[in-house]
């Protein structure tokens, strides 16, 4: 049971407050905010209490989503509910931010009214809710050059319209209903890598978690078929086709997915509901089909002047045509490092010493496949001892690999039936993120 | 609009947050008059004829409410619009009403009549929403109206409205607890509801209003178990939690042998929680416990209902809702036999890939479980490795789990992993890692030395916190076997020069004092240094200096007498009274004077007694007395409203009590367990055939009616034999249920709601003779109109059939109002083939192409043969007409009743009485040509069986064999 639900901005402003059961004081919101901000550390505990009121909160979109409960209901139910609520608000308002919440007070209030009745969760399915929700979402589209570039001279469509701006996927699901907006469907294949490379350069652990997300703005789409690679296989024993198989260890599907064609043709059939949903989640541990995207060759020594020399060679083993972006290597350095001098192999890199986190941060905006970058960092460390050499590392790497999946999963085709009247657009994106990419030294 | 924004400018942005035109608190407005002006503006908009203006005004008002501002003075203006036709406006008015009705009771009453009208609306959505708002208006005066509305809605046609009624129950209960008895009646009624939509909501109401009335659940228990998988996910959570509690009161502890063991063994285990001891004990204890158990009672047999619950909840571990997964996990943890609990591990590990808040809660529970059932999570050890991106609280919890999972085989991997964690930036985490190493070392004696060496190496770490934490842990480890490690103590003594963290200094001093005999040379020197710096130390260190001094004085007074005196003198004038107290106390105790009493003789014993080694144990050790997944468990404190999970009943619950339970008696006298899923629907056939054996063969053209008659006759026979009047009523209920064919048969989808634009059609083979034409198969169709508009002129057109097939269309349905359901029967002559019948289903606006394809088992109707007739007919259908297959029966399908049930589900056949219990025989005729279909299932040992089908039509025979095979083996 939920007593109150409220949404706070990160600054503590009340955005939404709804009391389902009554009986709580008016200052409850400020009590919560005081409690949250009083705590240090990167994350306050999920459940906090004040007298006999229990706050459960999550953070999403830079906002605090809080539910209070008095009776012993399961914290799982409430965290899961808050996550769903945030997802629903995102679906209905287009994006999740302080601004979008402020512009859609009435809509969110109406949503809450339908989702929760007297503290009991009724439903969180966007398909069901669509029948009840009447209010239209208000959106603000930030001014973007991308939008302008789509319109050529005299308003003619240009070549660039072949690519949708990244903001295209953030819009409310309901606007397509009345405004006859574009019917579009977005399919994202998102993978996250967790890699640990030992100090001897051997791969110690590799783990890829992936998901296929569908965001649907098709009012009349009854069935959609997503074809995966024919040679896609699950588990170790089964191998399909010739050549390199695309393999995952484990795979789970959204309950709306029908798998009758999955075994024979690797086709997922589903009736997508409006809004965003994760259609499939999969996981692969240890043997990745392709080489690791990055290798680091560090050399660390002391020079005569008592300075610490770190010579870093970073190689990107992606295929030559693709590139990694926003690469950032964090190299922990000994305590008491005072200054850094650097020699970088190309001008589009940057590096700086962050004294409070005791690390050198080396940033590379774009890193083409098959190339190699190197950097020499000279650190001034007073009282450098041999023990402090041990404090260097492990190096953490964060990056983004657009148009690449680590497992090799591809979407062969995307078919909608019945054939959509009018223009409909289908977008497929692939991206691999680093979740935790650690190289021990 | 413009007026209001002008006003804002004037106000100078006193509320900086939010959209300027929304949500100004009237009270915070600077100028009183303009306040009025603005409200007039809103009121004017509300009074206007244009819906758009009303909507705009309502949006602004709701925005005010959303931000917690007061908008109550607009009540009269808003409440007028409750009857507004525009549904958008109406909904916002509802939102407003629910918020302010309590404050403005008199005015709120004005709106009641609108809701009462709404309760009679033909549209189910409006009925439901009227009820919801009406029940949310917290005005005592309308309690009778609410009660009436709830009662009416509880028997509404639409399950959605019934669901809303269930939600309204707790609201009314909180408004007026005196209505409890009446509400329980409604709950009882709704509990009997068979739709999944209602089940979750009514259990929520049950849990709030009358959780103690567990007797209400008895007769709905099996139904709830069977419906569970289809219930809405939030409902599942509530039902599972309720059933957990129910099972704890009704069934026996499946781990009764093990739990005896635990009780017996707990005395030995208090000090060393180490596992090797446990393993050794286990065997001995097991024997004892077994002997005891044998003496006490017969071996434990799980109640089939208990099994049903476990079986039906298991698939829910795949749910994508974390709350459902956790609910099932705790159910298994609390209810399942130990051997089966393992299945939940995988599901819980999967949740670790969710949001960090969910991870946090999952890990808390995993930590508790991993203490009790370590084996369960061992295969997933790697999943608990820490990632550099995890937040600290998750890292610490993962460490906890890793420590709990450590054993002799995996400790080396775990320690290697821990080593890398120590390099982390995150200090709290490093400290936790060092403690974890310490705990591994105490639990697993093999690695104690390795760990100790590792920790000693950490003493040279540059980070003081790391060193300090290591010292504290080393101290605890050394206490276990000090004699071997005097060099470590020496090493630590040296550290006193550098280390500044008070806790660490105190630990070192204590260690030196305690084992001063192992380091006789160093100890006095340490004391000397400490005496020097005494005044600058922290309190906790000072106390340990005094302790050290006292201990040295007792063992080595020659060297340290003066030093001790000096320290005690310093302490005498300390600011802290604890220290002054301690100094005085120790002086009295150790320094011999004339006055000193008997105690000083024992001073050495007092100070240098052998102290027990500390137990490093998990903070999660005792958490499992809280129900897993509950708020109290997470907080490790009893939260308000926490209901303790009842203990298992000590003795087996009196079986006669359970016999009185109504449902329990059903399987007893039918001898076929209705516990099987879908069973209730099919009890019909075994019933008939059982009685048929007695009454002898009767030729009947109309098998359906015959069956019904036999059933009724048979039921009367049984009514006499059942004494309790209560049971009779229930029996009758069961029969009526079984007779209704629509509820009993598998239905197929003809038209999906989305494809049909709100019209959905399902069909089933009713297995009733189709009266207009005996050669046709009756197909019963159910039309549901879930669109918002009516559907007219439902009929069939453009039938496309293979040659020979015929269709008898159903009469046109003139009107199917929105939200309604209609049923029609059509007949299809499939010519004994499984070819599909294709046709168009037409409404007044649209046409849909649909097709019906029959399973082969529906192409026949049952006939009644005696055993001799059966054998004779079978003798004539040999050779090409006989198909034989060997098979292994499914585990759940090894008894006669299960076989009969599965075969008759797969094909519309009737059972032929038979002398041998190893054989089941079935007979039927194809609908069109009337060819005989004879099926024999002969069972052998170990689930082996042989299936024989004799049929003139070979195609039908082969297909039937396939279908029955599948039915029996799965």
UniProtKB/TrEMBL annotation, chain A:
Question: Which biological process, per GO, is one annotated for this protein?
Answer: vesicle-mediated transport
Annotated InterPro entries: Adaptor_comp_med_subunit (IPR050431), AP2_Mu_C_sf (IPR036168), AP_mu_sigma_su (IPR022775), Clathrin_mu (IPR001392), Longin-like_dom_sf (IPR011012), MHD (IPR028565)
A cellular component annotation (GO) from this entry: clathrin adaptor complex
Compartment list: Early endosome; Golgi apparatus, trans-Golgi network membrane; Membrane, Coated pit
Q: Which UniProt keywords apply?
A: Coated pit, Endosome, Golgi apparatus, Membrane, Protein transport, Transport
Q: Which SUPFAM superfamilies match?
A: Second domain of Mu2 adaptin subunit (ap50) of ap2 adaptor (SSF49447), SNARE-like (SSF64356)
* Origin: domain of life: Eukaryota
Its membrane topology, per UniProt? Peripheral membrane protein
User: What is the role of this chain?
Assistant: Component of the adaptor protein complex 4 (AP-4). Adaptor protein complexes are vesicle coat components involved both in vesicle formation and cargo selection. They control the vesicular transport of proteins in different trafficking pathways. AP-4 forms a non clathrin-associated coat on vesicles departing the trans-Golgi network (TGN) and may be involved in the targeting of proteins from the trans-Golgi network (TGN) to the endosomal-lysosomal system.
Protein name, please? AP-4 complex subunit mu-1
Q: What is the lineage of its organism?
A: Eukaryota, Metazoa, Chordata, Craniata, Vertebrata
Gene assigned in the entry? AP4M1
Automatic annotation (TrEMBL), chain B:
Q: How does it sit in the membrane?
A: Peripheral membrane protein
Q: What is the lineage of its organism?
A: Eukaryota, Metazoa, Chordata, Craniata, Vertebrata
Its annotated function is as follows:
Subunit of non-clathrin- and clathrin-associated adaptor protein complex 3 (AP-3) that plays a role in protein sorting in the late-Golgi/trans-Golgi network (TGN) and/or endosomes. The AP complexes mediate both the recruitment of clathrin to membranes and the recognition of sorting signals within the cytosolic tails of transmembrane cargo molecules. AP-3 appears to be involved in the sorting of a subset of transmembrane proteins targeted to lysosomes and lysosome-related organelles.
The similarity comment for this entry is: Belongs to the adaptor complexes large subunit family.
Question: For the AP-3 complex subunit beta C-terminal domain, which residue ranges apply?
Answer: 719-835
- The gene behind this protein is AP3B2
Q: Name the InterPro entries on file.
A: AP3_beta, AP3B1/2_C, AP3B_C, AP_beta, ARM-like, ARM-type_fold, Clathrin/coatomer_adapt-like_N, Clathrin_app_Ig-like_sf
Protein name, entry field = AP-3 complex subunit beta
Annotated region described as Disordered, given as residue ranges:
1-34, 262-293
Q: Where in the cell is it found?
A: Cytoplasmic vesicle, Clathrin-coated vesicle membrane; Golgi apparatus
